[in-house]
């Protein structure tokens, strides 16, 4: 689909307005395409020192890979092996790639392509979905929370809140996007459910323990379709700053363009996904439920100056009104590391503020 967006901001071709604010830019894609930028606005300069840019390339090959077929196997030995691998991945990395997940490759490709088509619509076409607050089921915007930020992110997003079992409000354009997205959300939720069962077992709990404790089957799902346009100074800006996710597990796929980095023991590691794998990271409510044993992981999105990156993240969380705390079975053997908080309160706390690492989780941490 051709991009028909009108120029949003006109800048001299050789420079950028130093203090332009993201609230003045309804779409970073349209902004980037509206003029021949040779530099980014100073308000997008995220990487201010050399340490921020260093990447431990040698660690990329060590990122865990989980064979999903082992987790769902009826063979007790194979299943136990899968649970053991999952435990190590959660404890050591908080991040892993899932293969043999059963999600059709064609569905993965189609939903990524539809996400791209949505972002290729003009600013005017997407205006009806403009972000009006965290409670809106459909939100289109740029950066993360432009009103609260000092430094902005070089990305556009579409966020859709799905409340199971039946509330699926979704943009009706482009045609066919809703149906594809609904199918994709349902199959990824099923994969997340099975991963949670394996995680429960790895903690010495019954397979359904975490799902029951969080009312996962009636839980919240948030689809986030990110677009990261080419950036004239990718070494200075970020598509997303370091942060952890709300929810239990985030499942992500992308369009083959690199950009995701994870923080492993203080070092940034570039993610080189296996073909058609699902990328999974443990999220804040899983850290709470596991009483700190499985920590949510810091990750960020980097940029390039040539290609547009599309990523599709699905946050899988508890039931929205559910009060979430450490699993009761774990507290029979250890002291609580976190206090309880409703998922709705936590979700709104994170989404209404600027991203700052894992600062949101500190609100429920017992010091």
From TrEMBL:
Signal peptide: none
Keywords: Iron, Metal-binding, Oxidoreductase, Vitamin C
Domain of life where this protein originates: Eukaryota
PROSITE patterns recorded: FE2OG_OXY
Gene Ontology MF annotations: L-ascorbic acid binding; metal ion binding; oxidoreductase activity
Stretches assigned to the Fe2OG dioxygenase domain: 219-318
Family named by the database record: Belongs to the iron/ascorbate-dependent oxidoreductase family.
Protein known as: Protein DMR6-LIKE OXYGENASE 2-like
């Amino acid at each position: 689909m051709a991009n028909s967006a009108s120029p949003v901001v006109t800048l001299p071709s050789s420079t950028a307005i130093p203090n332009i604010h993201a609230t003045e830019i309804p779409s970073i894609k349209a902004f980037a395409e509206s003029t021949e930028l040779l530099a980014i606005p100073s308000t997008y300069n995220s990487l201010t020192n050399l340490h921020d840019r260093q990447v431990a390339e040698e660690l990329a090959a060590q990122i865990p890979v989980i064979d999903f077929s082992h987790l769902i196997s009826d063979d007790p030995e194979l299943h136990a092996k899968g649970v053991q691998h999952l435990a190590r991945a959660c404890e050591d990395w908080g991040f892993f790639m899932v293969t043999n997940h059963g999600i059709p490759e064609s569905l993965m490709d189609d939903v990524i392509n539809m996400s791209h088509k949505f972002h290729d619509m003009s600013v005017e076409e997407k205006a009806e979905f403009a972000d009006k607050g965290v409670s809106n089921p459909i939100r289109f915007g740029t950066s993360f929370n432009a009103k609260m930020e000092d430094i902005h992110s070089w990305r556009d997003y579409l966020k859709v809140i799905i409340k199971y079992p039946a509330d699926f409000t979704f943009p009706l354009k482009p045609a066919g996007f809703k149906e594809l997205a609904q199918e994709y959300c349902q199959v990824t939720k099923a994969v997340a459910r099975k991963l949670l069962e394996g995680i429960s077992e790895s903690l010495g709990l019954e397979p359904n323990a975490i799902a029951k404790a969080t009312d996962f089957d009636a839980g919240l799902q948030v689809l986030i379709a990110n677009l990261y346009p080419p950036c004239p100074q990718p070494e200075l800006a970020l598509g997303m700053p370091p942060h952890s996710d709300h929810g239990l597990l985030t499942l992500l796929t992308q369009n083959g363009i690199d950009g995701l980095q994870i923080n492993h023991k203080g070092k940034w590691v570039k993610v080189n996904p296996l073909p058609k794998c699902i990328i999974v990271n443990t999220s804040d409510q899983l850290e709470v439920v596991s009483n700190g044993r499985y920590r949510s992981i810091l990750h960020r999105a980097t940029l390039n100056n040539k290609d547009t990156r599309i990523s599709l993240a699905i946050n899988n969380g508890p039931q929205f009104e559910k009060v979430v705390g450490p699993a009761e079975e774990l507290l029979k053997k250890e002291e609580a590391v976190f206090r309880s908080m409703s998922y709705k309160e936590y979700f709104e706390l994170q989404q209404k503020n600027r991203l700052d690492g894992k600062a949101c989780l500190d609100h429920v941490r017992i010091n």
